[in-house]
Design a protein that fits this description.
- The structure holds 2 protein chains of 2 kinds.
- Chain A is an alpha/beta fold.
- Chain A is built from 15 helices and 11 strands.
- In chain A, the strands form 2 sheets. An 8-stranded mixed beta sheet of chain A has the order 4-6-5-10-11-9-7-8, with helices on both faces.
- By secondary structure, chain B is mainly alpha-helical.
- Chain B has a domain of 38 residues: Orthogonal Bundle (Histone, subunit A), CATH 1.10.20.
- Helix content of chain B is 39%, strand content 4%.
- Chain B is flat.
- Classes of the chains: A alpha/beta, B mainly alpha.
Chain lengths: 486, 95
Amino acid sequence: MLNSTLLELSGLLAAKKLSSVELTRACLERIGRLNAELNAFISFDEDKALAAARRADERRSKGDAAALTGIPIAHKDLFCTTAFRTTCGSRMLENYTSPYDAHVVSELERAGMPLVGKCNMDEFGMGSSNENSYFGPARNPWDKRLVPGGSSGGSAAAVAARLVPVATGTDTGGSIRQPAALSGVSGIKPTYGVCSRYGMVAFASSLDQAGVLGKCAADLALVLTAMAGFDERDSTSLERPKEDYSRALGRSVKGLRIGLPKQYFADGVDPDVRQRVDDAIRWYESQGAMRVEVDLPNAALGVSVYYVIAPAEASSNLSRFDGVRYGHRAKEYDDLAGMYSRTRAEGFGAEVKRRILVGTYVLSHGYYDAYYLQAQKVRRLIARDFTMAFQRCDVLMGPVAPSTAFAIGAKADDPVQMYLGDIFTVPASLAGLPCLSIPCGFDRKGLPVGLQLMGNYFAEADLLGVASRYQEATDWHVRVPKETPL
Amino acid sequence: MSLTPDDVRRLARLARIDLEAEESHAVLDRLNQVLGLIDEMRRVDTQGIEPMSHAVDVSQRLRADEALEPDRRDAYQSVAPAVQEGLYLVPKVIE
């Protein structure tokens, strides 16, 4: 049951062969048994989850259920929820419970999905390994000595270990795709502006976008359909009609032009990763798709640009944490300025402090043009490369990350090494494009490899269709880690 | 270019983050590594390129200037570290 697709679960619920209470209880049982080792959840609550499940069952019995009604979900712990505290993986918000729900949370509640808990993450979304969490690292279910990726590492680990059927995540520079790849699950970041950022604690506002991590593309499509859509409370939410993201599932890939950015197949990619990605592309060719070599000449500058723009915006966004309106406040200080700086010194972890300081530097007097403005110009060049590429192809494919999951602690002392792991995810984030990661095999150590699919603006449904076709023919996405057997 | 310990102290002051003396040494090293990384994009010729300030180019939406939000002061203040009679309390600023 816990390895079933959402559509299968929905069918069982509709046919009364399964109740939401039973399904939710099965998830809670697994969380209770496995979370101590995986640390995928920062908060979970049996009573609240079962109460929501009972409401879903009542809704079903009254006949007003939607497809997702009764299927449990978990949210990354930066979506504001009234039912659970929202920590953002930070000491700053350790005891913070939001007075309102994020738009995405409300939409999924409206769909009738019982919320079981909140997933671990790198503090405020800043990290690629989930090691920067005040609540300790989440662990990779495929090998608990390894990171699950980040920043949505808890969501990825939770889905990979089948603790929940699906979870939300957010992506600023790769924070959905990279943990999905490293943990062997599927994950989508839609076009910037498709999901409302209302109630999503801000990291870098021009990049932050909500998305989904699940077992397969068809599951992502169902949940994205429920959570996406215009919301006037987010000034960057796009006014577009509601879409059915499942509409292209299973569509033939005959004649599909697959762009292969040569920069994504250069040196520095682990040979196993490269091989598995190549195998997947060859499978598409066998189904009638065509290979087109494309050039993204500025993509390699993505990491450099990202680590100007994201810290700059973060330094501004995180100035709200001052110990006055919410969150942690230091106990000892001399005056107001001292209260601010002690509060922030105690409340933020090392990586968050570093990024705030970098952001403060690149925005400071005399450096703004040389760093922030220049980064925005190079960002335009990167986005233009994609526009050019999509004149010659329908979808871009490549690896998600240069390597598979790495050991906890392996890169902890070298931020630049960690940042360079984002090289293949950051460009599409900077351009605001929809992108997806799906499992495409395992390396020689038995660790999952992710295939990245990037589409043109608003091509989510097409991307999900292309991904689902592959998943109809392969079984990588249904394999369950040996360490967390069903 | 590299930052000096003085630069780091100045940035920490601007960012309102207390850095312990021993902490600031490690921070200096790390910041210089990061600046080395981001130096790469400074060398790109961007003459005539319009800065991209947002992921999708859309103009700011406007709405009628009407109050839409209900008064939820009590709810919002319930999560504050210190409040009194609807006001947020901070250390004394003026003697």
